[in-house]
Amino acid sequence: MKFTIGRTAFTKALNTVSRAISTKTTIPILTGLKLVVTQSAIVLTGSDADISIETTIKADNPDNLLAVESEGSIVLPARFFTDIVKKLPQDTITLEVGENFQTMITSGQSSFTINGLDANNYPHLPEIQTNTSIPLAADLFKQIISQTVVAVSNQESRPILTGVHFVISGNNILAVATDSHRLSQRKVTLESSIDDAYDFVIPGKSLTELSRMVEDAQEEISLSVTENQALFVIGDTLFYSRLLEGNYPDTTRLIPDSYDTRVSFEAPELLAAIERASLLSHESRNNVVKITIDPDKKAVTIYGNSPDVGNVEEDMVPKSVEGNELEISFNPDYMKDALRSFSQATINLDFTSALRPFTLTPTEDSESFIQLITPIRTF
């Protein structure tokens, strides 16, 4: 096996598949990346058994500077190989596999020899046997991920909550995540309707990696789903993720359908105040911030307290306030995550009582995006 390739295109492909490769895997060969070379293309694969990424460098694209002398396949140690390629001096690289999978990498005056492994021992990628795929706008799907993945659970005691629950039917997508202390729900209307209905849970870690791969400039992702795998096609790259098994809890009943107190703020303004209050709350054992609302005076006050350091109090003028007086305490980190996901929007905070979960929604199209936070009992 022997080929010459442009370093820029090769490095980009290596960085893409390396996202799926973990040094902590129990299968030693998965610490490597697989190269399959044909006359028309090089296919690179990386996997950690949960996610697998396959990307193709095509010979007919002149930017790749790809010239294949002989075909073949090899598995190379991912971290060393990627670091070597990045540091090579010239714009083109020649890679040649000799006896016993000894692999020689040359560029200019520099030459490395590293030990490879037999590609036949590399696990096969999942087979996605379905003819239907769902087209998704890349920037919109990236937004869905960023707005929901903040609420997934990090506790393996309930594995199903470590993922985002997707329900797709007709022309609607519903994405929900919860760790039982907070919840994030996003609804999106697709431009075209799909025939089948889908209900699946993708691990939050998979979605985070996928989000990093999706460039906003790319217009569309294609999603295919089978019983235990999801496949995202992004240009010349395939991203496979296992699906979580089990039934996701019914979260619809958690979201209140009425409120007793409502306050409106610009999300960045409230976020800045919560960040200031949490400077002191983080020094306290319980990490709590308190908010008091007085609709008669149209006043909102935020408190943060640490017995060892001191306290902070900040009066804020909301855009609007209505309903009953209220004093409520919450985890400021949850609130900051929720507020960041709204970007520059004006939001409503809806409360029912001091001990009931409260919601954050955009003032426009409030059904499309809901963040819910469970308060903390402080007495």
From TrEMBL:
Pfam families under this entry? DNA_pol3_beta, DNA_pol3_beta_2, DNA_pol3_beta_3
Q: What is its main location?
A: cytoplasm
Q: What are the DNA polymerase III beta sliding clamp C-terminal domain coordinates in residue numbering?
A: 253-376
Q: Which UniProt keywords apply?
A: Cytoplasm, DNA replication, DNA-binding, DNA-directed DNA polymerase, Nucleotidyltransferase, Transferase
State the SMART domains in the record.
POL3Bc
Q: Does the keyword Cytoplasm apply?
A: yes
Subcellular location(s) per record: Cytoplasm
Q: Where is the DNA polymerase III beta sliding clamp N-terminal domain?
A: 1-126
Its domain of life reads Bacteria
Stated role: Confers DNA tethering and processivity to DNA polymerases and other proteins. Acts as a clamp, forming a ring around DNA (a reaction catalyzed by the clamp-loading complex) which diffuses in an ATP-independent manner freely and bidirectionally along dsDNA. Initially characterized for its ability to contact the catalytic subunit of DNA polymerase III (Pol III), a complex, multichain enzyme responsible for most of the replicative synthesis in bacteria; Pol III exhibits 3'-5' exonuclease proofreading activity.
Q: Tell me, how does this one assemble?
A: Forms a ring-shaped head-to-tail homodimer around DNA.
What the entry lists under NCBIfam families is as follows:
dnan
Q: Which family does it belong to?
A: Belongs to the beta sliding clamp family.
Name-wise, this protein is: Beta sliding clamp
